[in-house]
Specification:
By secondary structure, the chain is an alpha/beta fold. It has a single domain, classed as Alpha/Beta hydrolase fold, catalytic domain (Rossmann fold, 3-Layer(aba) Sandwich). Helix content is 34%, strand content 13%. The protein contains eleven helices and eight strands. It has an eight-stranded mixed β-sheet with strand order 1-2-4-3-5-6-7-8, with helices on both faces. Strand 1 and strand 2 form a beta hairpin.
Protein backbone atom coordinates (compact mmCIF):
# COMPACT_ATOMS: atom_id res chain seq x y z
CA UNK A 1 0.00 0.00 0.00
CA UNK A 2 2.82 2.42 0.86
CA UNK A 3 4.50 1.76 -2.49
CA UNK A 4 1.17 2.23 -4.28
CA UNK A 5 0.62 5.61 -2.62
CA UNK A 6 4.15 6.70 -3.45
CA UNK A 7 3.62 5.75 -7.09
CA UNK A 8 0.37 7.74 -7.26
CA UNK A 9 1.92 10.81 -5.66
CA UNK A 10 4.93 10.66 -7.97
CA UNK A 11 2.67 10.34 -11.01
CA UNK A 12 0.49 13.22 -9.89
CA UNK A 13 3.35 15.59 -9.18
CA UNK A 14 5.17 14.67 -12.38
CA UNK A 15 2.05 15.32 -14.41
CA UNK A 16 1.33 18.65 -12.76
CA UNK A 17 4.90 19.89 -12.85
CA UNK A 18 5.90 18.90 -16.36
CA UNK A 19 2.86 17.49 -18.12
CA UNK A 20 0.62 20.52 -18.37
CA UNK A 21 0.90 23.19 -21.00
CA UNK A 22 -1.22 25.93 -19.46
CA UNK A 23 1.43 27.82 -17.52
CA UNK A 24 5.01 28.12 -16.28
CA UNK A 25 6.46 25.76 -13.70
CA UNK A 26 6.48 27.31 -10.23
CA UNK A 27 7.97 25.84 -7.07
CA UNK A 28 6.71 28.68 -4.88
CA UNK A 29 3.30 29.02 -3.27
CA UNK A 30 0.95 31.96 -3.47
CA UNK A 31 0.08 34.18 -0.50
CA UNK A 32 -3.65 34.91 -0.54
CA UNK A 33 -4.84 38.38 0.35
CA UNK A 34 -5.48 38.70 4.05
CA UNK A 35 -6.39 41.41 6.50
CA UNK A 36 -9.08 44.08 6.22
CA UNK A 37 -9.77 46.03 3.08
CA UNK A 38 -7.98 49.37 2.70
CA UNK A 39 -10.13 52.02 4.33
CA UNK A 40 -11.76 49.66 6.83
CA UNK A 41 -10.51 51.57 9.88
CA UNK A 42 -12.01 54.85 8.64
CA UNK A 43 -15.24 53.08 7.73
CA UNK A 44 -15.64 51.57 11.19
CA UNK A 45 -14.82 54.90 12.84
CA UNK A 46 -17.47 56.78 10.87
CA UNK A 47 -20.26 57.58 13.36
CA UNK A 48 -21.89 60.33 11.33
CA UNK A 49 -24.97 58.23 10.55
CA UNK A 50 -25.82 57.61 14.18
CA UNK A 51 -25.48 53.87 13.73
CA UNK A 52 -22.54 51.48 13.69
CA UNK A 53 -21.52 50.42 10.18
CA UNK A 54 -21.15 46.68 9.56
CA UNK A 55 -17.64 45.25 9.87
CA UNK A 56 -16.52 44.29 6.32
CA UNK A 57 -14.58 41.34 7.71
CA UNK A 58 -17.24 39.73 9.90
CA UNK A 59 -20.68 41.03 8.96
CA UNK A 60 -23.03 38.69 7.14
CA UNK A 61 -24.15 39.98 3.70
CA UNK A 62 -27.74 40.03 4.93
CA UNK A 63 -26.65 42.39 7.73
CA UNK A 64 -24.94 44.59 5.16
CA UNK A 65 -28.09 44.67 3.03
CA UNK A 66 -30.21 45.60 6.04
CA UNK A 67 -27.80 48.40 6.97
CA UNK A 68 -28.00 50.02 3.52
CA UNK A 69 -31.78 49.53 3.37
CA UNK A 70 -32.05 51.70 6.49
CA UNK A 71 -30.22 54.65 4.90
CA UNK A 72 -31.52 57.47 2.77
CA UNK A 73 -30.28 57.86 -0.78
CA UNK A 74 -28.15 60.83 0.28
CA UNK A 75 -26.57 58.82 3.08
CA UNK A 76 -25.77 55.97 0.74
CA UNK A 77 -24.13 58.35 -1.72
CA UNK A 78 -22.00 59.89 1.00
CA UNK A 79 -20.69 56.46 1.98
CA UNK A 80 -19.75 55.77 -1.64
CA UNK A 81 -17.86 59.05 -1.81
CA UNK A 82 -16.14 58.73 1.57
CA UNK A 83 -15.44 54.98 1.63
CA UNK A 84 -15.26 53.69 -1.97
CA UNK A 85 -12.80 50.86 -1.29
CA UNK A 86 -15.13 49.41 1.34
CA UNK A 87 -18.50 49.94 -0.34
CA UNK A 88 -17.12 48.66 -3.64
CA UNK A 89 -16.22 45.30 -2.11
CA UNK A 90 -19.00 44.88 0.43
CA UNK A 91 -21.07 41.78 -0.32
CA UNK A 92 -24.72 42.59 0.32
CA UNK A 93 -24.42 46.26 -0.62
CA UNK A 94 -26.70 47.46 -3.46
CA UNK A 95 -25.32 46.72 -6.91
CA UNK A 96 -25.55 50.30 -8.15
CA UNK A 97 -23.54 51.59 -5.19
CA UNK A 98 -20.81 49.02 -5.76
CA UNK A 99 -20.62 50.05 -9.41
CA UNK A 100 -20.25 53.71 -8.41
CA UNK A 101 -17.61 52.95 -5.81
CA UNK A 102 -15.56 50.98 -8.35
CA UNK A 103 -16.09 53.37 -11.27
CA UNK A 104 -12.38 54.19 -11.51
CA UNK A 105 -11.59 50.47 -12.01
CA UNK A 106 -13.94 50.03 -14.97
CA UNK A 107 -17.50 49.58 -16.21
CA UNK A 108 -19.91 47.60 -13.99
CA UNK A 109 -17.18 46.43 -11.62
CA UNK A 110 -18.78 44.68 -8.66
CA UNK A 111 -15.58 44.20 -6.64
CA UNK A 112 -12.02 45.47 -6.95
CA UNK A 113 -9.04 44.94 -4.65
CA UNK A 114 -5.68 45.89 -6.21
CA UNK A 115 -3.53 44.46 -3.41
CA UNK A 116 -1.06 41.78 -4.45
CA UNK A 117 -2.02 40.16 -7.77
CA UNK A 118 -5.45 41.71 -7.36
CA UNK A 119 -9.07 40.54 -7.21
CA UNK A 120 -11.89 41.72 -9.44
CA UNK A 121 -15.48 40.91 -10.40
CA UNK A 122 -17.13 42.50 -13.41
CA UNK A 123 -20.66 42.21 -14.79
CA UNK A 124 -21.76 41.80 -18.39
CA UNK A 125 -25.45 42.59 -18.87
CA UNK A 126 -28.13 44.17 -16.69
CA UNK A 127 -27.58 42.52 -13.32
CA UNK A 128 -30.15 44.56 -11.40
CA UNK A 129 -32.98 43.50 -13.73
CA UNK A 130 -31.75 40.08 -14.84
CA UNK A 131 -34.01 37.05 -14.76
CA UNK A 132 -30.97 34.78 -14.68
CA UNK A 133 -27.46 35.26 -13.26
CA UNK A 134 -24.34 33.28 -14.11
CA UNK A 135 -20.93 33.46 -12.41
CA UNK A 136 -17.72 32.34 -14.10
CA UNK A 137 -15.12 31.01 -11.66
CA UNK A 138 -11.73 30.81 -13.42
CA UNK A 139 -8.78 28.53 -12.76
CA UNK A 140 -5.06 29.12 -12.36
CA UNK A 141 -3.07 32.15 -13.51
CA UNK A 142 -6.04 34.52 -13.48
CA UNK A 143 -5.66 37.85 -11.69
CA UNK A 144 -6.10 41.51 -12.56
CA UNK A 145 -3.34 41.39 -15.18
CA UNK A 146 -4.90 38.42 -17.02
CA UNK A 147 -8.55 39.13 -16.21
CA UNK A 148 -9.37 40.00 -19.82
CA UNK A 149 -9.56 36.26 -20.58
CA UNK A 150 -12.33 35.70 -18.06
CA UNK A 151 -14.07 38.96 -19.02
CA UNK A 152 -14.12 37.83 -22.64
CA UNK A 153 -15.63 34.48 -21.65
CA UNK A 154 -18.34 36.31 -19.72
CA UNK A 155 -19.12 38.49 -22.72
CA UNK A 156 -19.36 35.47 -25.03
CA UNK A 157 -21.63 33.60 -22.60
CA UNK A 158 -23.89 36.60 -22.04
CA UNK A 159 -24.25 37.26 -25.76
CA UNK A 160 -25.19 33.62 -26.37
CA UNK A 161 -27.58 33.48 -23.39
CA UNK A 162 -29.46 36.69 -24.19
CA UNK A 163 -30.49 39.96 -22.62
CA UNK A 164 -32.36 38.48 -19.65
CA UNK A 165 -29.13 36.88 -18.39
CA UNK A 166 -26.33 38.75 -16.62
CA UNK A 167 -22.91 37.12 -16.37
CA UNK A 168 -20.35 37.93 -13.69
CA UNK A 169 -16.66 37.30 -14.37
CA UNK A 170 -15.49 36.55 -10.84
CA UNK A 171 -11.73 36.58 -10.25
CA UNK A 172 -12.40 36.92 -6.56
CA UNK A 173 -9.82 34.55 -5.09
CA UNK A 174 -6.07 34.07 -5.28
CA UNK A 175 -5.50 31.47 -8.00
CA UNK A 176 -2.49 29.17 -8.37
CA UNK A 177 0.30 30.75 -10.40
CA UNK A 178 2.13 28.46 -12.78
CA UNK A 179 2.20 24.68 -12.53
CA UNK A 180 3.25 23.49 -9.10
CA UNK A 181 2.13 22.45 -5.64
CA UNK A 182 -0.62 25.06 -5.38
CA UNK A 183 -2.28 23.43 -8.37
CA UNK A 184 -2.08 20.00 -6.76
CA UNK A 185 -3.48 20.92 -3.35
CA UNK A 186 -6.73 22.41 -2.09
CA UNK A 187 -5.22 25.21 0.02
CA UNK A 188 -6.11 28.08 -2.31
CA UNK A 189 -9.38 26.42 -3.29
CA UNK A 190 -10.53 26.26 0.33
CA UNK A 191 -9.92 30.00 0.74
CA UNK A 192 -11.53 30.65 -2.64
CA UNK A 193 -14.60 28.63 -1.64
CA UNK A 194 -15.08 30.83 1.42
CA UNK A 195 -14.92 33.93 -0.78
CA UNK A 196 -17.26 32.45 -3.40
CA UNK A 197 -19.82 31.44 -0.78
CA UNK A 198 -19.79 34.94 0.68
CA UNK A 199 -20.07 36.47 -2.78
CA UNK A 200 -23.12 34.40 -3.71
CA UNK A 201 -24.64 35.17 -0.30
CA UNK A 202 -24.19 38.81 -1.23
CA UNK A 203 -26.06 38.32 -4.49
CA UNK A 204 -28.89 36.71 -2.55
CA UNK A 205 -28.93 39.52 0.01
CA UNK A 206 -29.18 42.02 -2.84
CA UNK A 207 -32.35 40.26 -4.04
CA UNK A 208 -30.84 38.70 -7.16
CA UNK A 209 -31.79 35.30 -8.65
CA UNK A 210 -29.95 32.15 -7.58
CA UNK A 211 -26.86 31.98 -9.83
CA UNK A 212 -25.51 29.25 -12.02
CA UNK A 213 -21.76 28.70 -11.51
CA UNK A 214 -19.44 27.97 -14.43
CA UNK A 215 -16.20 26.65 -13.02
CA UNK A 216 -13.09 26.13 -15.14
CA UNK A 217 -10.12 23.93 -14.26
CA UNK A 218 -8.90 24.72 -10.71
CA UNK A 219 -12.02 26.84 -10.35
CA UNK A 220 -14.00 23.58 -10.30
CA UNK A 221 -12.13 22.62 -7.13
CA UNK A 222 -13.27 25.92 -5.63
CA UNK A 223 -16.87 25.26 -6.69
CA UNK A 224 -16.77 21.72 -5.34
CA UNK A 225 -15.72 22.95 -1.92
CA UNK A 226 -18.25 25.81 -2.03
CA UNK A 227 -21.16 23.70 -3.31
CA UNK A 228 -22.79 22.99 0.03
CA UNK A 229 -22.63 26.63 1.09
CA UNK A 230 -24.11 28.33 -1.97
CA UNK A 231 -27.66 28.57 -3.28
CA UNK A 232 -26.54 28.00 -6.86
CA UNK A 233 -29.17 26.47 -9.13
CA UNK A 234 -26.56 24.83 -11.35
CA UNK A 235 -22.84 24.10 -11.07
CA UNK A 236 -21.07 23.50 -14.36
CA UNK A 237 -17.46 22.29 -14.34
CA UNK A 238 -15.17 22.06 -17.35
CA UNK A 239 -11.59 20.83 -17.76
CA UNK A 240 -11.83 19.76 -14.13
CA UNK A 241 -9.02 18.06 -12.15
CA UNK A 242 -11.72 17.04 -9.64
CA UNK A 243 -14.11 18.63 -7.17
CA UNK A 244 -12.70 17.07 -3.99
CA UNK A 245 -15.72 14.77 -3.84
CA UNK A 246 -16.28 11.13 -4.78
CA UNK A 247 -19.62 11.87 -6.46
CA UNK A 248 -22.42 14.43 -6.67
CA UNK A 249 -23.97 13.20 -3.44
CA UNK A 250 -20.80 14.09 -1.54
CA UNK A 251 -21.10 17.68 -2.76
CA UNK A 252 -24.16 18.06 -0.49
CA UNK A 253 -26.02 20.47 -2.74
CA UNK A 254 -29.38 20.73 -4.47
CA UNK A 255 -27.72 22.30 -7.49
CA UNK A 256 -27.75 20.40 -10.77
CA UNK A 257 -24.17 19.31 -11.50
CA UNK A 258 -22.95 19.39 -15.11
CA UNK A 259 -19.50 18.46 -16.44
CA UNK A 260 -17.60 18.83 -19.71
CA UNK A 261 -14.18 17.65 -20.82
CA UNK A 262 -12.68 17.89 -24.28
CA UNK A 263 -10.77 14.89 -25.64
CA UNK A 264 -8.05 17.41 -26.53
CA UNK A 265 -7.79 18.81 -22.99
CA UNK A 266 -4.42 18.22 -21.27
CA UNK A 267 -6.30 17.80 -17.98
CA UNK A 268 -6.88 14.21 -19.05
CA UNK A 269 -3.24 13.52 -18.19
CA UNK A 270 -3.79 14.50 -14.55
CA UNK A 271 -4.46 11.44 -12.32
CA UNK A 272 -7.89 11.75 -10.72
CA UNK A 273 -6.82 10.77 -7.24
CA UNK A 274 -6.61 12.42 -3.83
CA UNK A 275 -3.75 11.10 -1.72
CA UNK A 276 -2.27 12.80 1.34
CA UNK A 277 -3.91 16.12 0.35
CA UNK A 278 -2.49 15.93 -3.20
CA UNK A 279 -4.90 15.72 -6.13
CA UNK A 280 -8.56 16.60 -6.34
CA UNK A 281 -10.38 13.30 -6.57
CA UNK A 282 -12.79 11.76 -9.05
CA UNK A 283 -13.26 12.95 -12.62
CA UNK A 284 -16.64 14.74 -12.74
CA UNK A 285 -17.22 13.42 -16.27
CA UNK A 286 -16.76 9.79 -15.18
CA UNK A 287 -19.93 7.63 -15.23
CA UNK A 288 -19.83 6.93 -11.51
CA UNK A 289 -19.67 10.58 -10.47
CA UNK A 290 -23.27 11.30 -11.36
CA UNK A 291 -22.98 14.63 -13.16
CA UNK A 292 -24.80 15.34 -16.40
CA UNK A 293 -22.04 15.19 -19.02
CA UNK A 294 -22.14 17.82 -21.75
CA UNK A 295 -20.77 17.35 -25.30
CA UNK A 296 -17.30 18.81 -25.75
CA UNK A 297 -15.80 16.99 -28.74
CA UNK A 298 -15.42 20.25 -30.69
CA UNK A 299 -13.53 22.09 -27.93
CA UNK A 300 -9.94 22.45 -29.22
CA UNK A 301 -8.05 22.99 -25.96
CA UNK A 302 -8.17 23.36 -22.18
CA UNK A 303 -8.93 27.09 -22.26
CA UNK A 304 -11.48 27.06 -25.09
CA UNK A 305 -14.75 25.87 -23.54
CA UNK A 306 -16.38 29.29 -24.01
CA UNK A 307 -15.33 29.63 -27.66
CA UNK A 308 -18.23 30.86 -29.83
CA UNK A 309 -19.61 28.12 -32.04
CA UNK A 310 -18.68 25.25 -29.74
CA UNK A 311 -21.26 22.82 -28.39
CA UNK A 312 -20.17 23.69 -24.87
CA UNK A 313 -20.94 27.40 -25.17
CA UNK A 314 -24.34 26.57 -26.64
CA UNK A 315 -25.08 24.27 -23.70
CA UNK A 316 -23.69 26.75 -21.17
CA UNK A 317 -25.97 29.48 -22.52
CA UNK A 318 -29.01 27.21 -22.28
CA UNK A 319 -28.14 26.39 -18.66
CA UNK A 320 -27.44 30.02 -17.76
CA UNK A 321 -30.74 31.08 -19.36
CA UNK A 322 -32.75 28.42 -17.56
CA UNK A 323 -33.50 26.42 -20.71
CA UNK A 324 -31.77 23.20 -19.56
Amino acid sequence: MRRFRKTLITALLTTLLVGGTAGRVSASTESPLSGPLPGTAAWLADDSLGKEPPDPTTADPSEVAAFFAGLTGAQQQRLVEDHPTVVGNLDGAPVNLRYEANASAGDQVLAYDPRGRGLIAQVVGDLENATHVAVIVPGSDIDISTFDRTARQAADLQEEAGDDTAVIAWAGYTTPSGIGLDLATGRLAELGAERLTRFTDGLDAAGLPDPSLFCHSYGSVVCGLAASGTDASDIVVMGSPGMRADDVTALDTDAHIWAAKSPDDWIDRVPHVEVLSLGHGADPTSPGFGATVLPADDVPAHDEYFTPGTSTLTAFAAIAGGDL
